[in-house]
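Loading example: each entry is read as two labelled lines plus one structure line.
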Amino acid sequence: MSLDQDPTCIGRVKHVLGATVTVALDADLAGIAPIYRGQVLSVGQIGSLVRIPQGPVELIASVVLVGISELVGAVEPLESLQRDERWLQVQLLGEIDKSLGKFRRGVGTYPGLDDPVHFAVAEDLRCVFPDNDEKSVRIGVLASAEDLPISVDLGKLVTRHAAIVGSTGAGKTSAVASILQAVVRGGWTGANIIVIDPHGEYSSALGDSGSVLSVLGSKSSKLKVPYWALPALDLPRIFAGAVGGPTLNARLLTLVTEAKRKFAAASNWLSIDSAAITCDTPIPFDIEEIWYQLEYENGETRDIVGDPKSASIVDKGNASELKPPQFKPYSLGSLAPFKGPSYGMFGMIPAAIRLGLLNPKLSCFGEPRGTVEGPDPLVEVVSEWLGGDRPISVLDFSGVPAEAADLAIGVVLDLLFELCQRSDSGGPGLGRPSPLLVVLEEAHRYLGPNASVNTRNAANKIAREGRKYGAGLVLVTQRPSDLPDTALAQCGTLISLRLTNSVDQGTVRAALPDNVSNLASVLPSLRTGEAVVSGEAVVLPVRVLLSRPDPSPKADDASLQSWRDSTGPPDIAVPLASWREMYSG
Amino acid sequence: MIEWIETPGSSMMVAAAFVEEEEAIYVRFSSGKCWRYSACDRANWDEFMAPGQSRGTYFHTVLKHKPGVPFDG
């Protein structure tokens, strides 16, 4: 075979089937990694790019399959190849107009047989992957040409949703941190980016440019999710870690609704029709009073069954001090005192709610209380969630029980979506007037079937309808197969890091565009921090070596150094005391 | 679907039912009216329906003091 003298030429077109082109590699090519300008190039890497000149345009194609003809058997496009011939199968993706120096998706002409095929070097691809401009942010470099920076269109990444998937240790957290750092350094200082951080990994990476609120923080760094903004039926789950029975739930709904109506009636800053207030309307109320009433009814004994005034009370207790009321024990047989009408019907839940209210780890749910004099406490809370004047806000939920974090995250997501939905384009507010991006770590936990109903609904609402209201979502997960079918479909951009689980690989393969779904075959072998990026925010699906974040997140694995250094057993007293706090007053 | 159980021997009621998911006892009185009494657990139901237990006595001493509402069914 006589190839062009051009040192970038690697072979010739042998077969064209639609957008799939088979290329016979030059027999003289050393391996499939030619040396060009002193550098070894990865021509045969799956996902690397080649160009096929066609007069005034150059077709750009991505390598999807490599092989030697005799080993392949009856793969139809390869019939024209000679025995022992090495080949590439490439997918046509777009073309460069050489006169304009511009790239466009799709091809107007198809290559002819024996047309030369060249590997693409950084200069060839600069017009395909323009460096970051005002609309884009640089996320890394092309894996097959590391001197070529790759940028993503931030507008499309934010408003059309995105997913970052990868197995544990593949570099998801670093990818998120790196992209967000690039956003801030790119001058998007007025951004509204909220990172939902269930494991407390992002504070070190984003603390310089963002606000970090933690459920275990103090004063200004404390994350507040007021209990009164939660659906009433979630209160036992938050504070008692249990679901109420039908009698408790019915009573709780009645008591909370009454308390909220009472607060609204006394309030100077609320103007809302009392009849429109339900148990779930986010209006402050006194939860200690509700607890006290439940505790009272649950333990009440009476001298006369039908007379509430005859309660056999020993100590009235005190709601604000969380001191439970004490009653004389009921008598067996027909003697007083008798059980009250709801005696024992609430089980241990009132007692567990009391412990929850005393638990410092759940104190983030206790603030702000709100007063009838005002101001509206939710304004302060949501402003803090949004990070004030910082472009990024990290909401760190590490340290509270997983179920409580799940419910609190649901409240945050629901409230943010509601605000976006109610903000008009031209007016003040969040969403259309000033887009919101929510980065949801461990997204499978909040969108999947095991999430609480409210959290799942809130996350799905943003995924399904967020675009309309300027609310974007970045789903970060190691288990894309655990996401609902529609979630990945809603994501305009997919950043896939190494995935070792075959079911997850299948999910990502299905989410990739048809013409590059073969790229999914590289998912298990990607390096840490390397990703296949596809979708609306990038001009072409590409393998990218993502930039390292600086500073780094706290997502490293535990070090085993202590196994060498330590001379005694680990001191478990402190963590044990911390754990016990959850169960003690 | 409420599964009514007849209460023979009682002059004041003709049938009763327990819905565990609601923690509620339903009573159909001889007058034809039905009431739903909440805050009733299985122990209440077992005591109410125990052999030898007077339904009327149990109703007057326990059930009628539970939160009750007329039930149209």
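The two ends of chain A are 84 Å apart (CA to CA).
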